[in-house]
Amino acid sequence: MAKRARLPDRAGRFGPFGGRFVPETLMTPLMELERVYLGARRDPTFRRELHALLTTYAGRPTPLTPARRLAGHLGGAEISLKREDLCHTGAHKINNTLGQALLASRMGKPRIIAETGAGQHGVATATAAALLGLQCEVYMGEEDTRRQALNVFRMELLGARVIPVTSGSRTLKDAMNEALRDWVTNIRTTYYCIGSTAGPHPYTMMVRDFQAVIGREARAQFLRAAGVLPDALVACVGGGSNALGLFTAFLGDPVRLIGVEAAGEGLETGRHAATLAAGSPGILHGSRSYLLQDGDGQVLAAHSVAPGLDYPGVGPEHSYLKETGRAEYVTVTDGEALEAFRLLARLEGLIPALESAHAVAYALRLAPALGPGRRLLVCLSGRGDKDVQSVAGLAGATDGGGRGAH
Amino acid sequence: MGRIEETFHRLRRRGERALIPYFTAGDPGLEVTRQLVEEAAARGADLIELGLPFSDPLADGPTIQRASQRALAQGASLAKLLPVVASLRGRVSAPLILMSYLNPLHRHGLAAAVQELVQAGFDGLIVPDLPPEEGRPLDRLARAAGLDLIPLVAPTSGPERLRLIARRARGFLYLVALTGVTGARAELPPDLLRQIRELRAVTSKPICVGFGLSTPEHVREVVRWADGAIVGSAIVRRIEELQGDPGMVGKIGGLIAALKGATRDGGQG
């Protein structure tokens, strides 16, 4: 545990993964950010400020909810849900953006930028920027601005400017390229707030640390409620921030860690976002990690019904946990995620984000397999209000339009 | 002495500075790239930089991003570029430099990539997302194979980093003129001279300036202080404008001749 806690090493590496593969222009700013962050992490004032924001503004601690009807329906292990869906703005993303926006203020940067796919990280960044009085601009693939028009409007209401990205595949990876290009250009005035445990060092470490509150709370809550640790943790993995947030506090425990990737329309179709299951090591967005790529090293487009999982890379620490065998990574298809989405709504009165529905879907498989007397802890990383419309559209399509006709 | 170093020695003796044009390999097709390299060499290019297209070129502005997309749509790849370069090597004596993001090389295998680049006749390699801290494995392979790994220095590189980078540099140092991505700009950055002086203070290796240079006037100004000027987006944009024009290669040659002219009459002598 003590040894494990030191990762990443001084070069920002988790074994052979991670690092800082960026243009020279960004090296000095990344080292400066690392220095400021390490200082802030030790600084009681910073920790107090962040804790105050998390408790008085973001809604922490979030509860641990026993999913009794779901477990009863499945007839196997007990299931508990860590309720990140109750965080302000509807997902765990705010844990990170409050931390980073505080850092931006500490560094005297008046402007904060972010990339976003589904818009959840964009909304969380715009929220933190509004709260702390920072100027905010969010890069979002043009495709995504159309698919997630409501989140674009939310960001604008919060005072942010949303910049549609028309380069490349016009989705999250291109939004991240564009945000990095903006940062390289406006480095002196601008703080880049990355939304997942991806990107160059120190972001992967920093985002994990800000999200680790999920697992710290959940571990204490679980012990209090059950008197023992859970047998297994289950969380969805796109870039991987909610999963690392949950896993980190349990790394030294005899607890199975299970990350669930999006198999989209099925791994065999090639239309998926299962980077760890079907990708290979490569370099994207500043770090070495698993990647969906072709034989020439060109990055492939990802696909998932959950826009937040629609990313061809994955955080380097997940690659490390996979290679060392400490965590297991499994996949769930669009169809299985949609089924879990509906089942959780009906049996527990909880509409999960489509991303989180992937974790729930795997729990549906795992709980009966583990059997009675075992205990599962599932991260419900976000709520599904944002997805209701697209699920209604999908339902309309699969029901031959019957339900779609108002 | 490598071909790149020799080229700078020869230019210095002649009181000239280097013009280094950039082309995105495979834009609009690899056969045209072959013609463009020959034309560029014939019209005075002293070294030639070829960019391997990548799906996620985060150091590049819109012009080179579009060129990369066009080249990838044409199926350009390292494997297809190598024979094109090999066929040029007997006809073009100017040093050839590959610009590639790390992932295509990593995917190919760094050791194999370095061997094949040298065999094809490349003299140098620029990897824009490989800072010195991450560059040791490639640096060792390139050194052993006689391929010059040319590093970039940026306006944000402090004195300590300038020394670190200069110490490992081979061929020349690529000075990124501005904080930003590649792309033609109307004006040169005001603190360019200071940057060149700071770098000159820590190295005797040639210094070439790139990012934002677009006109013969820019080149003339830059080579008053630097050993060479790198012009990319302005050329790539002209190639884009001339798509479908049968006289495109000759017109690009004319642009290169005009840029080269600016390295002959403006140097410190």
Strand-pairing-aware structural class of chain A: alpha/beta
Q: Which second-level CATH architecture of chain B applies?
A: Alpha-Beta Barrel
Mean pLDDT rating of chain A: 95
Major sheet: arrangement of strands of chain B: 5-4-3-2-1-9-8-7-6
Rg of chain A, rounded, reads: 20 Å
Helix content of chain A: 40-55%
Classified by CATH, the class of chain B is Alpha Beta
Total DSSP helices of chain A: 16
- State the order of secondary-structure elements of chain A, H for helix, E for strand: EEHHEHEHEHEHHEHEHHEHEHEEHEHHEH
List keywords for this structure.
heterodimer, A: 406 residues, alpha/beta, six-stranded mixed β-sheet, four-stranded parallel β-sheet, 16 helices, globular, disordered C terminus, B: 269 residues, TIM Barrel, nine-stranded parallel β-sheet, 12 helices, 9 strands
State the gist of this model.
The complex is a heterodimer of chains A (406) and B (269). Chain A is α/β, with parallel strands linked by helices.
Topology:
The complex is a heterodimer of chains A (406) and B (269).
Chain A: E1 13-14, E2 17-18, H1 24-42, H2 44-56, E3 64-66, H3 68-74, E4 78-83, H4 93-106, E5 111-116, H5 120-132, E6 135-141, H6 142-147, H7 149-157, E7 161-165, H8 172-185, E8 190-192, H9 203-211, H10 213-226, E9 232-236, H11 241-247, E10 256-264, H12 275-278, E11 280-284, E12 287-291, H13 316-324, E13 327-333, H14 334-348, H15 354-370, E14 375-380, H16 388-398
Parallel strand pairs in A: 4-14, 5-6, 5-8, 6-7, 9-10, 9-14, 10-13
Antiparallel strand pairs in A: 1-2, 3-4, 11-12
Chain B: H1 3-14, E1 18-24, H2 30-42, E2 48-51, H3 62-73, H4 78-89, E3 96-99, H5 102-108, H6 110-120, E4 124-126, H7 136-145, E5 148-149, E6 152-153, H8 159-168, E7 173-176, H9 192-200, E8 207-210, H10 216-222, E9 228-231, H11 233-241, H12 248-264
Parallel strand pairs in B: 1-2, 1-9, 2-3, 3-4, 4-5, 6-7, 7-8, 8-9
Helix pairs in contact in B: 2-4, 2-12, 4-6, 5-6, 6-7, 10-12
